[in-house]
Amino acid sequence: MKNIAKAPVWDGPIDEAGVESLLVLARKYRAYDDKGRYLHWHEFRFRPTEDDRKVAWWAVKFARLQLLRPIGLAAEHGKSFLLCMPDPMQRILHRIDRMCPLQDEELFSDEAPLTVNRYDKLYYLATSLLEEAITSSQLEGASTTRRIAKEMLREGRQPRNKSEQMIFNNFELMQAVKENGQNPLSLELIKEFHRIAIDKCGENNAVPGELRLTDDVYIEDLEGEVFHTPPKATLLERRLERLCRFANMNHDGEGGEANFFLHPIVKATILHFMIGYEHPFADGNGRTARAIFYWHMLKCGYSVFEFISISRLLNLAPLKYFRAFLYVEDDDFDLTYFVAHQLDVVDRAVQGFLDYVKEKKRERLEFTSQLKSLGAKGDFNYRQLELLRSMRKHPGKPYTAKEVAFDYNVSANTAREDLKRIAQFGYAVEAQVAGTKERAYIALAGLPSGQSDLRRAV
C-alpha cells in the first residue's frame, strides 16, 4: 500500500476573497459526497471539481465539524477520538437493523419469512464458524487452503503447521466469543480471547494472553510499510481498563454514565478499531479485535451475527481495511472513516447471509420436488434432507458420523442415526473405514431400487 496523501491542514489566515470563497463553498459541500461516501483527502483530491481543491476540502471539513463529537476515548497524547454519523451512514444502519431480527427465533422458525428451522440454524452456525475461522486467519497471513482447513476441523485432527493452527485457534475463539456473549468486557476476557487466538502460533515473542512489555512494536501493511506506532506498553493496562469501561457503558442516550447514543453496531466497530489502535499484544491483535466486535454484537442481542462472517469480505479487500485504520489517525482521529468502512462490510455481509439462506431454501424445495417426481415419497427432516442432497451430488463419497456431526453442529450419535436412516432407504451403504474401527456410509448414485416409497421416513 503506497503512502496515503496527507490531508492538508488549515495553514493560517487567508485573504478576504479566500474567506468569502470558503463561505460559499461551505454551503455547497457536505460531509459526504454525492454517492454518500465519507472521503479522505487521499480520495477527495481526485474528485472532479471546478473549485480550488484545498479550499473545497476545508469546506468539507467545516461541514464535518458541525457533526463531529468526542466519544469519550482519547489517543495516547490526549487528543479525543471523534465521530459523526451523516445521513448515508444512518441509512445503512437502518437497513441493517431491518434485515437483522434481534432474536434468531424470528429468523429460524416455521413462521419466519424465510421459513428455515432449527436444523438450518445448526448447519448455518457450523458453516459460519468455519468461514470466520478461515478468513480471519487468512487476513493475518495463514496460507492453508479452505479445503484442507475444512478437512482438519471436520476430522477433528490436530493442526500440522502454523497456518492450520491459526485456523483451529480462530474456530475455538469464535466459540469462546459466543460462550461469553453476555459477560461484561474485562481485561481478563480480552487476554483470554488473545490466549486462544495465538496458542502455539504466536510471532514476535508474543506470550498468549499477556500484554506486550516493550515498545518495539509497530503496525505494517501487507507491503511492509509502517502506518501506526501504538501507545507505550506502560500505558496499556490503564488504557484497556478505560476501554472496558467504555464497552460496558449503556450508550442508549437515556442518561446514566454515557449521556449520548451510540448504535450497537457503531460501538462494536469502535471497539474493533481501538484494539487495533492500542495494539496491546505483540501478535494476534487483529484476531482479538474482530472477536471483540462479535462479542459486542451478541451482547446487544444481534444473535444473527453468530451466522455472519465479516472477515470474508475484509479478506477480499484488505488494503481498504488497512487504509480505513490509517485515515483515522491521519485526519484528526476522526473514527468516521473506519466506521463507514465497517458499516459497508456489515451491510454486505448481512445481505449476503440472507441471500444465502434464501438460496438454500430454494435448493431444498427444488430437491424435494425432484425426489417426488422420481417417485420418492415421505418426509426426511431438514438436516437429513440436506445430507441426502449432498450425497446425491457426490456419489461414491464416504460420510462419517464425526464429519456429519461437525457439518451440522449435532452430536455424533445424532449424525450416526441420520446416516443409518439414509442407508436404510438405500441411498448409501455402510462400510468399514480402512485401518480404523470407524464406520462410513458411501453415497450411492440414483434412486435405490425397490425403495421408491419412503413414507416410513420420519
From TrEMBL:
Protein's name in the database: Fic family protein
Catalytic residues (UniProt): H279
Keyword Nucleotide-binding: yes
Sorted UniProt keywords: ATP-binding, Nucleotide-binding
Domain named Fido: residues: 185-341
Gene Ontology terms for molecular function: ATP binding
Signal peptide: none
Residues annotated for ATP binding in this entry: D283, G284, N285, G286, R287, T288, A289, R290
Species for this entry: Chitinimonas arctica
